[in-house]
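SEQUENCE-TO-STRUCTURE ENTRY
===========================
What this section holds: a protein sequence and its matching fold, both as plain text.
Question of interest: how does this chain fold, as expressed in backbone structure tokens?
***
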Amino acid sequence: MRPDTPAENVDHAAEAARLERTAGLYPEDAEALLLQAAAHLELSGDLPAATTLYDRLLSSSTGLENPYLVRALKASNLWEYGHEAEARAIIEGVRTASPRDPAPWVIVAEALESHDELEQAQETFTEGVRLLLTDVPEPPYATHPLLFGRHRVRRMLGAAHDEWDALAESVHTSPVSLDELHDPKRVWSLGSDDPAELRAEISRLQAELGTYRAALSRPFPVAVLHWPATELAELIAAYPTLATEYPSHEEHLATIEASLRELASSGTPNLGIVTGTVPSYEAFAASEGASPADPTLLPQYATTLAARGRAVEWPPQQGALCWCGSGQAYGGCHGAQAA
């Protein structure tokens, strides 16, 4: 959630102001944009201003898509500038609520970890892992930081490996093992006068940084565009030439699921779905100086929605509703195609 950009290359205060202005222009995306703005304010050192943005989001009358994420970020930020008691209270509230999104779990656990509350951090990581990954055959990409964070804290505590630690290692893709990356003794080698030890440590740090940057890259490098039935009917009525792209709504939904499954089988990670609306699409076309009837504009629109934080993870987590909006569980709707 925090931008992976060195402070010397970005005017974080100016970027935060730009994102706030953009949120005013796109109120449907205000939550994602203001969270990015708050992240820039934190990087600029203006922690109270970041808290003000979190409070603005939490007091919004329109409701939030990810309220526990906002609460978790606020708690982490508050603790950084001395409001420990309030931060702890918010963290406890997030844990009690047991959100189904892994991000709040990671953020509150890392806040505890960064303030040397290692036992509490381990408990928090473990609660999140058990809630989200019990009886899940393949850990979703978004849950990997939960597994890695838990492994890291347990390594610092000297705990023996368990099945969750083994699972973390199995989904870890860096050439350097998690045991090496999370070895508490690594910090000692940074003070060594031995060039060989320093080179080895630099190699480990580069591998860790590569993994970290991959996790902070755009959450959904491939996002497929989904039109609800009413929006698709309005789109085709307004721009009949797009009927060749969407022969029917049923076929549109089937094509989305089939495309995502094909991408997943080819090894493409971290897939997502964005939902379009005709007014939003027309506004995008106008901003591009293009006609909404141009089918080549559709993937660009999907990419823009994803960049504005509108993508949702595919496949949905176990027990979650289907992405198509049917109201059924994914496993009994489009997820049944897996069988």
Residues 195-216 form the longest helix (22 residues). Strands lie at 222-226, 271-275, 312-314. Residues 185-217 form one domain. Residues 116 and 187 are 16 Å apart (CA to CA).
